[in-house]
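Have a think about this chain, tokens included, and walk me through the fold.
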Amino acid sequence: MTRTVKTGKCIRPCERAFSFLAKANRVRCLNVEHRTGGRFLEKSLSSDMFRRLRTPLLASGGLLAAGALDRALAPKLRAPLTTAAAAGTVGSVHIYQYEICPFCNKVKALLDLYRVPYETTEVNPLTKGEIKAWSGGYRKVPIAKLGDEQVNDSGVISQALLDRMGTAGVLDAKQLAEFRSPKALEWAKWSDEKFAVLLFPNITRSFSESYQAFGYVMSVPHFSMLDKVSNQIIGSFFMWMAQGKIKKKYGIEDERAAVVAGINHWLNEGVGSKPFAGGKQPNFADVCVFGCLKAIDRTDAYKEIMAETAIKPWYDRVEALVQPGNACTSRQ
């Protein structure tokens, strides 16, 4: 049984770039679907006061001061579940992925957050050899195998996993409703459709940056040396070449300014004065935005984004709970 959804006419940047790459190499179109201390001073410092302090700091470029204030207000965090508590309750989960795909990282962050064991298989971006024999023609990632059921599209996968967590008692009804509240789903949609598309132009500004982003293929155990070299060199070149087309399609003039603006929008309107968009604990929106940034955390673009915005305290709080990879039992 396969679940999927229509994504409408929206073509994500990496889908278009990889499509260009695939045609050039006479392979089928590649479609990419698209991380404590201190007491939380909630009693002594109101949300309104926090906004009055934090917003001027950001507006005046005081990133260090704003970051210090964020850290002072950071709550004590604890992981929602242990792996042992979640093991066996949801069933087997296998994710077919690209390491730099923000949507794959979203799904993995959800599983890691609730300590649901899963396995991953890296898909060859050029040949799709890991999925083409059984995916029924579906060419995007992530694809999840939930037991014997194939589930396509990160949004559908995430909701299927949350349904199973609810049924298994990993989350009770109230927790589940709060985690995927209408507001959380609204911001999750923003993350998928608005924020994620800004990442591609930021990691492909030059051939060297694109080459760096594709460097993950060199550590995939089951890729041959030919697979590794062809993906990193050819893939990097065509992703770099596609950068201008992606910017034009989405009306992006300055990719770095656009992603900084997106992050500020998320911090000011999505997170606000709270530790997380979900309040004292992350919700689905936190997971989605975190997944986007986690996907590029080995790049220079990521380092610059962290230095140029006030996102790091929020990111560190989410990372402390997610502990990326903690629930992954096998990587291929």
Notes: Residues 5-11, 18-53, 75-79, 81-85 have pLDDT under 50 and may be disordered. Strands lie at 2-3, 93-97, 118-122, 143-146, 149-152, 328-331. The chain has one domain: 2-37+75-331. The two ends are 24 Å apart (CA to CA).
